[in-house]
Design goal:
Chains A, B: Residues 146-341 form the D-glutamate N-acetyltransferase-like C-terminal domain. The structure is a homodimer. The first copy, chain A, is of the alpha/beta class. Chain A is 34% helix and 15% strand. In chain A, strand 4, helix 4 (120-129) and strand 5 (133-135) form a beta-alpha-beta unit. Chains A and B meet through helix 7, helix 8 and helix 9 of A and helix 7, helix 8 and helix 9 of B.
C-alpha cells in the first residue's frame, strides 16, 4: 500500500466556478440524463438563473430557458454541464456549446467523466476569454486515511444499493437540522452533491488507496457541536462498488448512520443476478465495518424511497421497516425527516 | 457511481520491458528500500543479470555489481528501478542514472509513484535511444466489476494487516502447485508482484470505482482446471486501505482463501492506535464479504510470518493457529506450503 503521496492533480478551488449558474441540459434524452442539473435546481434554486436546452432536449427543469448571452446578461457566472451522456463523453455539439458559453463570458463547470481540459478547443476558449474550467470529477489531492479519532459529530447515509436516495436524504437532514437552529453541513461525495454544496470530493474517482483519506479530508475535526452530514455512495453489498462504500464508511467515522432503501427494487442496480440485501443484513454489515473506526457508531433512522408506491403502501413500508429495526422510518420526499432528526437529538443530547 | 468508461491511460504491454533485467538499487539506505528489487532477485533470479549500486548504497541483493554498459553487454534488456525512496520520488541522481541506462541501450521500468514519463529528460533520452519506459504503478484501463460468476478456480491471500507476507505466500503456492504438476498462475496486484509476474494490475493505484473490475480483468475465466493465485493487498481491518481489500475480494470471487498473519505484531502497520485483529475475526469478516460474489468461498490454510521468532516459538504459533481454526498453518519461508496445498487438493478434488 502506498504512503501519503499527494495525487498529481491540482486542487479545484471553489472560487473557479462562482454562482449563479446557467444549467446546461443540451440534448438530454430523458429526466435521468439531466440528474445533476435537476439536483442543483431542486436544492439550490436561488443559485440558478435558467436552463439551456438544445433543439432535441427531452426534459426540462421548469425554469427559464436562456441562451448564453441572455444567461450572462441575467448574471450567470458559470455554466454547469449537468447532463450525463452515454459514457460521460462530450459530443461535438456539447463542445461547441461550451465554447459559446465561454465566449459569452461564463466559466464552465462539468460533472462529466471526460474532462473539459481534455478538449483543446475548450481550453483555448477559456484562455481567450480569461474564464475558468472546473471538473467536478477531478479529485483534490488528499492524504491516505489515518483512522485517528477526530472531534465533531458525523452522520453518514448508507444504502442497500446505489441510487436509493442517499444524497437527497442527506440534504433533507441538513435542511431540517438547520431549520431547528442546529449547525449542520452537507458534505458532498458525488458530482451532483459537489455542485449543490459548492465543494466536496468525487469519492468514486479518487485513487483506491485514498478513499478513506479523502473522507477524512472532507469532514475534518469540528468543535462547534455541529454535524457533518456525509453523502454516502454505493453499498457494501454491491459487487462493483463496495470498496468505495467501505472506505467512505471508515473515513467518515460516523456517530450516526441512516439506512437508505428503495422497497420493491427487483435487483442490485445494473446487476440482475444480485438480489437486494435485507434491511437487517445491511444494518449489521455497516455497523460491523463502522465499528472499526468508531466503536460508538449507531443507526438513527431509515429513509425509504417510496416514489413508485401508493400513499398507503408507502405508509405500510415505513411502519414495517420501523417495526423490524426499531428506528424511525420516513420517506424524505413524502414525509420529510423530522422524526429521524428527533431521534438524532434524543440519541446525541448536548 | 460511474459506468464502465475505460480509464484515460494507455495499457502497458508486457513487451515494453523485456527481460533480462539490471536491478537498480541506487543509494537505497536499507533492505526495505530495495524491496522490489529483492523480490525480483529472489523469485526470478534467472531473469536478473546483476545489480547497480551507487556509492552510498547500504544494501545488496548478493548478485553481480554491474554498471550500465556492463549490464547491457551482459544482455540486460531492461533496468528495473526497484527502489523505494521516501515519497516514491525520483531524485536528481536517479534521473541521471535512468538517462544513462537508456543511453546504454536498456529500456527502463519503475515501481515508483512518480512516473518516468513525468521527467522530460527521461522521455527525451528514451526517444533518442528508441527505448521504452514502463511504470508498474500505471494501471491498465479496465471495466467496472460485474460480479458475474466465471469459470476457473481462484485462490486469494488475505491478511490481518498490510505486509504480512501475502505476495510471498501466493508465489510459494504457485511454486508448490507447479512442482506437483498443477496448472497455477500467480496474479500480481502490486508493483513488486508485477515485475515478478511480468504483468498484473497495481490495484491500489486504480480509480476507486474500478477495484473489483480490475481484479475481474486480472483473473478472467479459465477452463483448464488450473488455479489463478491472486496476490491480496491490505486488510479489511486497516482503516486506510480496506476499500482496496474488499474490492479485491469481491473481484477475485475466490474459491479458496489463505489467511496471512505475522504473530506478535504490536499494531496495524503505520497506525499505533489500531490493534491487529484476531485470526478468527479476520476469517469471519473475509468469509462474510467473500460470500457476496462466491457463496462457496472457504479458507484452506494459514500462512504465518514467523521471521522474528525462534524455531520453537514458530512451531508453537503454527500449532496454535491450526488448533484454533482447524486449518493447516505454516510459515512459507520456514516450512513451505505443502500442507496448505494438500488441503487445497483435498477440498477441491478434480
Amino acid at each position: 500500500m502506498s504512503r501519503p503521496l499527494p495525487l498529481p492533480v491540482e486542487p479545484a478551488a471553489a472560487s473557479t466556478w462562482p454562482a449563479p449558474f446557467l444549467l446546461y441540459l443540451g440534448n438530454a434524452h430523458d429526466d435521468l440524463a439531466g440528474k445533476t442539473a435537476r439536483g442543483l435546481a431542486f436544492w439550490r434554486p436561488e443559485l440558478c438563473v435558467g436552463q439551456f436546452r438544445d433543439r432535441d432536449c427531452k426534459t426540462t427543469l421548469g425554469i427559464t430557458d436562456l441562451d448564453f448571452a441572455q444567461a450572462r446578461a441575467a448574471g450567470a457566472n458559470t455554466m454547469v454541464v449537468g447532463v450525463a451522456n452515454a459514457g460521460g463523453r462530450m459530443d461535438e455539439r456539447t463542445i461547441e456549446h461550451v465554447v459559446a458559453a465561454l465566449d459569452a463570458g461564463m466559466n464552465v463547470a462539468s460533472g462529466l467523466h471526460q474532462r473539459l481540459d481534455s478538449q483543446p478547443r475548450i481550453v483555448e476558449a477559456a484562455r481567450r476569454n480569461g474564464r475558468s474550467l472546473f471538473d467536478a470529477r477531478n479529485p483534490p489531492p488528499t492524504p491516505v486515511g489515518n483512522g485517528l479519532p477526530r472531534a465533531g459529530r458525523r452522520l453518514l447515509t448508507v444504502g442497500t444499493d446505489c441510487s436509493t436516495g442517499k444524497m437527497y436524504t442527506t440534504l433533507a437532514l441538513e435542511k431540517e437540522m438547520r431549520a431547528r437552529g442546529m449547525a449542520a453541513d452537507f458534505r458532498a461525495t458525488g458530482q451532483t452533491g459537489i455542485f449543490i454544496a459548492g465543494h466536496g470530493i468525487p469519492i468514486d474517482a479518487v485513487v483506491a488507496d485514498f478513499i478513506s483519506g479523502g473522507i477524512e479530508w472532507l469532514s475534518p475535526a469540528r468543535d462547534d457541536d455541529g454535524w457533518d452530514l456525509i453523502e454516502g455512495q454505493g453499498s457494501l453489498f454491491h459487487p462493483s462498488y463496495a470498496g468505495v462504500s467501505i472506505g467512505l464508511l471508515h473515513g467518515a467515522q460516523p456517530d450516526a448512520l441512516v439506512l437508505c432503501h428503495e422497497p420493491g427494487r427487483a435487483h442490485m442496480r445494473g446487476l440482475p443476478h444480485y438480489a437486494v440485501p435485507s434491511l437487517q443484513a445491511t444494518l449489521e454489515a455497516n455497523l460491523a465495518a463502522a465499528h472499526l473506526t468508531n466503536a460508538e457508531a449507531r443507526f438513527v433512522g431509515i429513509a425509504l424511497n417510496t416514489a413508485r408506491m401508493s400513499e398507503q403502501d408507502a405508509e405500510r413500508a415505513c411502519r414495517s421497516a420501523e417495526d423490524q429495526l426499531g428506528l424511525p422510518a420516513q420517506d424524505p420526499v413524502r414525509h420529510g425527516v423530522s422524526r429521524i432528526v428527533d431521534h438524532v437529538i434524543a440519541c446525541f443530547p448536548n
